[in-house]
Amino acid sequence: MKKEIHPELYDITITCACGATFQTKSTRKDYSVDICSRCHPFFTGKAKLMDTAGRIEKFTRKYKHLQKKEEQKKG
């Protein structure tokens, strides 16, 4: 490896808006984030899932004729 071309690596603390802190290494010094894995709705299980059943049914109705043609070709 070439000398004096790599950025300096620091031991840093990342602070979330919820108060959680994480220790890691980075080329930047300490900084804060708005959301982390402890407070993000997806990871906490509080995420609202969209009901996609209506979309799937609409898709299958729309392309049902193509599926029948494929089955006729195979059979």
The CATH topology turns out to be: Rhinovirus 14, subunit 4
The count of helical stretches stands at: 3
- Give the tally of structural domains: 1
Architecture (CATH level 2) name: Irregular
Strand order of the largest sheet: 2-1-3
The amount of beta strand, in percent, is 15-25%
Tell me the name of the CATH class.
Few Secondary Structures
Write the layout of secondary structure elements.
Elements: E1 10-16, E2 21-26, E3 31-33, H1 41-44, H2 53-62, H3 64-74
Parallel strand pairs: 1-3
Antiparallel strand pairs: 1-2
Provide key terms for this protein.
75 residues; alpha+beta; Rhinovirus 14, subunit 4; three-stranded mixed sheet; 3 helices
